[in-house]
Design a protein that fits this description.
single chain, 119 residues, mainly alpha, 68% helix, globular
Amino acid sequence: MITRRLVQVVSSALVAGAAALGAGLTAAAPAWADVTPQDQQFLDVVKQLEVPVNSDEDAIKIGREVCQSMDAGRVEPVRTVRGLVTGLQNQGLDKGKAANLVRGAVATYCPQYGSLVGR
């Protein structure tokens, strides 16, 4: 099951990427009671892929943090994508499902990075 540990892994990758770029990142806490159409689109991806998550909150946070990692890793986007996929694999997802989850997050929250994650 994708757990809060994955959120921590993605967050750690985000912080490490930001530190490597010399950038400081702060994230505003989203209002979970207000699921946006984008959030619902990503939740639909998570459900379609049958990714086990503890809560919709965790799924949304993971999706958003994928894009924060992409923002932080613009200097080395391929390495960033690989790191995200590997982090998901380390939480028990197979490579295809992990890659599709990253693609879904990018398509939903940061389509400007679509060319970096493929179709």
